[in-house]
Amino acid sequence: MAQKGLAGFFEKYLDENLIFKDKKSLQASYTPETVIHREEQINTIAAILAPALKQDKPSNLFIYGKTGSGKTLTIKHVSGKMEQIATERKIPLKIIYLNCKMKRIADTEYRLIAQLIKEFEEEVPYTGLPTDEVYNKFFKILEKSKQKNVIIILDEIDQLIKKAGDEVIYNLTRINTEISATTITLIGISNNLIFTESMDPRVRSSLSEEELVFPPYNAVQLKEILKKRAEQAFKNDALEAGVIEKCAAYSAREHGDARRALELLRVAGEIAERKGISKVRIDHLDDAEEKIEKERILEIVKTQPKQSQVALLSILFMFEKNNSLSVYTGDVYEIYKKLCLKTDLRPLTQRRISDIIGELDMLGIINATIISKGRYGRTREIKSEIGSTIKQKCKTILTQALGL
Description:
By secondary structure, the chain is an alpha/beta fold. The protein has helices spanning 3-15, 39-49, 71-88, 109-119, 131-144, 157-164, 167-178, 201-207, 219-233, 243-254, 258-274, 282-303, 306-322, 329-343, 350-362, 388-401, and strands at residues 61-65, 93-99, 149-155, 183-190, 210-214, 326-328, 366-372, 378-384. A 5-stranded parallel β-sheet has the order 2-3-4-1-5, with helices on both faces.
C-alpha cells in the first residue's frame, strides 16, 4: 500500500464499522456481569470464602480444570462481588489476583513476594535483595495493615511451583503462624489436575485445601455463552445463520474451551471485516479455525523445553527423510541422539523420549499410538497432525532455537 493512500485507508477504517459493536466482550480478559453455566461452582466458592466477610479465615482452595472451563472468570466474578460488599460495609478485606505465568510478576518466589508488596502500594526492587529480607518487609506490611483477611489468588500456580519449587507455598501458609493481625488465604488455580501429587507432603499438609474441579463446557452451554457475548460484540444481523452453532459444535468436540470458542468467533469477524464484508459467514469461521490452529502450534513449539524441541525436530527430520506417513520411536531416537551431540545436550533414555513423544501427542502436534511388536516389545507409531506448511515453519523455529 503506497504511503499516499495509507492515511485514506485508516480514515476509511475509522469511518466504517461493518461488523463489531464492542469487540472487547469476545476477549479473554473480559469479565461479564453475569457468568452462565457456572452457578454451582460460583455458589461453592462463595460458601468457602464467605467467612472472610465476618472477619474469619476461609479455607485455602485449589481450583482445577481444563483451559477455558471458566475457572479464572468464576473466581474473578465471586471475588469482585466480595470486594464490592466489603467496601460498602467497610469490612477489612483485601483480595489479590496474580497470574504466575507472567514474567516479572510472579514466576519466581522473589518476584511473587515483591509483587505482593507492590499490591500494598509499597516497593522493593524486583531483583537484588536477599529473599529473607523481602519476606521480612512483607511481614511488617501485614502486621501494620488494616486488612483482617488477605486472599491471594495464584492463577496457573503450577507454573510458579515448576520454576520456584513448592517451598514458596509452604512459606506463604506459614505466615499465619508468624503474625496475628492479618490472616492469609491461598486460592490456587491450575489446568493440571495432578500437579499437587508431586508436592512435598509437608506442604500439602500446610495447605489443608479444599478442592473444586471445573468440567469442560458442552456444545449447548458453549452455544449459549457465544450467543450472549455475540449480542454484545456484533452489530445486528452481522452473523450468518449457523455461525454460532458451528463454532460451539467445533469447540465442544475439540476441547470444550470457551476462551478458544470466543477467540474463533472474534477472528472470524476480523477476517470478514478485513475483506470489507458486513456479515460473518461459515467460511470465515473455517479460515479463522485454520489461522488460530497454526498460531497455536507455532507458539507451543517456541515455548517447549529444549529436550522436547530436539525430540520434535527429530520426528520432523524422520518424516522428511522417509517421506512416509508414519515413523517409530526407535528410528526417531537415533536421530535424536545425533542432534543432542550437535546441541551439547545430554541425551535422555529412549523411555524418557517415548514419554516426551506422548506429551507432544497430548499437545496435538503429532499422533502417537502405542503398538505391540510381539516379542520385540512395544513402540509408538507416530503420525503427523499438522500440514506441510506448518511443518516447515516448525522446523525453522526449532533449528533457530537450537542453534543448528
